Amino acid sequence: MTTPPVRARDLGFLLHDWLDLEALLAYPHFRDHSVETVDAMLDIAGRVAADTFLTHYKAADSQEPHLVEGQVRILPAIHQALAAFAEVGMFAAPFDAEVGGLQLPQLAYSAAMAQFMAANVATSAYPMLTTGNAKLLVRYANEALVKACALPEIEGRYFGTMCLSEPQAGSSLADIATRAVPDGDDGLGARYRLFGNKMWISGGDQDASENIIHLVLAKMPGPDGKLIPGTQGISLFVVPKVLVPGSDYAGQRNDVVVAGLNHKMGYRGTANCLLNFGEGAHHRPGGLAGAVGYRVGGVGQGLPIMFQMMNSARISVGLGAAMLGYRGYRLAVDYARDRRQGRPIGGRGGPPIAIIDHPDVRRLLLAQKAYAEGALALVLYCARLVDEELHGPAEGRDEAASLLGLLTPVAKTWPSEWGLAANDLAIQVHGGYGYTRDFDVEQLYRDNRLNPIHEGTTGVQGLDLMGRKTLKDDGASLTILRHRVTATVERARRLPALADFAHVLDVTWARIGALVGHLKAAGDDVASLAQATSFLSAFGHAVVAWQWLDQAVVAGSLAVTDDPDETAFRAGKLAACRFFFETEVPRVDVWLGIVGRRSDLTQTFDPAGF
């Protein structure tokens, strides 16, 4: 058996010591679970991840998906891994029992998925998208569509996708041109024929599942026969690859054609497709043109509904980015312990020492630890907020939802940017070897380079945070966050080793609050939004600083132990917190200064100057 890709103590500290999973399991919704059952599930996840996902990590990178007579073929080892994933109930884990799920808390499920993503993020993309797809259907689709499409996904027999982007539109969904024409009704509900092209569709085709359920954004024609402009005209449709039971055309191949595969820098095991809907030369159900689809939700409600899956996917992207950074960090630690080179500073004789004994290498490792473990903590914190919002005491649900909304762009972006930075440093620790394909850190970097791009680029997330979540918000969510930060500050002040950091954190958040007040008073949102990415950088670092201090308070408050491994573990947490405050928090003032100056350079500079 291969060693699990995530250290059990790392997950154990975050779940049990810091995020208090036991208190979460006291919610009535999770009454069938206990700490023991969750730990058993995590142990199973670690073993399956190590034995079936990690083992083909390199092969999936070198043997990419390919087209054979219009069908995408993926590495057989991916089939086997996903079958094992389904066999142990991982597709079903986060769903309610009434739809065949295991009703596991999102926090526990995210911890399980962390192990699969650390082992093989490309293979993990298939179940990540499938569970998000099924969750949306369970919440918004009619009973017939849930039975025909979502339940097989929960069983792991069907896989799912999200089809948003188009070649000409990219992230500007208001500009999509895929159209949906009414085509009557059948046993699955209101039926439509779809025509258009979708780009960058992860899992858009593959040969590992019985069927593929596409969730497609498209526009319907208005009374004048023209597509309704803007986002108001967008509706959401279920478009199966093979028409499902309940359809008038059950069993027929739908008019969805793979027009090509995108050849990526990383994530190569995930088939990424250009799909044509309603333009195939064959496979026309009923002899009619167009891909058969069924509307989910009301007319014009496609984007608000789809945002549920998009926001869930953004947090999942953050988790994947964190775990790529984490695995690179652990590989760098192992390499630094084994690699012997050079002598101590000031020393001239004696044998070479392990490079981990060089201060600069320790600096690189501490930075990776701060980034990777900080990113994982952030995403798991958000997973707990999901559980609080959906299943916690009624009086706390709105607060959890508000805070989750504020933190979602941070949870997507901060791990994506700084997990990638950790991978860069992992290569540096390996030296020239890290730049070769013989060591995984090269591939981990390439895989992680996607995460600042997909599910909304860093710039898009910055606009979301500064625009919708800050400038246009009434301040309630920021107030909730500030109260939680203050609670951490008060606890940290009682611990001498952390008191100075508590003061720094308090001052940092006061500066953020003052800047937000200044920007709102200025009233020039255009000028402020031009600096949205710098604001996101500052805000994200301040959030992670808060969470590192909160973890340090917990680590410093645990009962004294004689176990040297446990003592070293806790010392590592405290050192990472210190490193973050000494090295990373000073960046926040620089970013806030950029935002506060509201420079007009990027708005007024003539592009001809490039």
Automatic annotation (TrEMBL):
Domain Acyl-CoA dehydrogenase/oxidase N-terminal: 79-145
Database matches in Pfam families: Acyl-CoA_dh_1, Acyl-CoA_dh_C, Acyl-CoA_dh_M, Acyl-CoA_dh_N
Cofactor: FAD
A molecular function (GO) term: oxidoreductase activity, acting on the CH-CH group of donors
Domain Acetyl-CoA dehydrogenase-like C-terminal: 484-599
Boundaries of every Acyl-CoA dehydrogenase/oxidase C-terminal domain copy: 300-464
Source superkingdom: Bacteria
Span of domain Acyl-CoA oxidase/dehydrogenase middle: 162-277
InterPro entries: Acyl-CoA_dh-like_C_dom (IPR025878), Acyl-CoA_Oxase/DH_mid-dom (IPR006091), Acyl-CoA_Oxase/DH_mid-dom_sf (IPR046373), AcylCo_DH-like_C (IPR036250), AcylCo_DH/oxidase_C (IPR009075), AcylCoA_DH/ox_N (IPR013786), AcylCoA_DH/ox_N_sf (IPR037069), AcylCoA_DH/oxidase_NM_dom_sf (IPR009100)
Keyword Metal-binding: no
Entry keywords, A to Z: FAD, Flavoprotein, Oxidoreductase
Claim: Transmembrane helix is one of the keywords in the record: no
Similarity comment: family membership: Belongs to the acyl-CoA dehydrogenase family.
Protein name according to UniProt: Acyl-CoA dehydrogenase
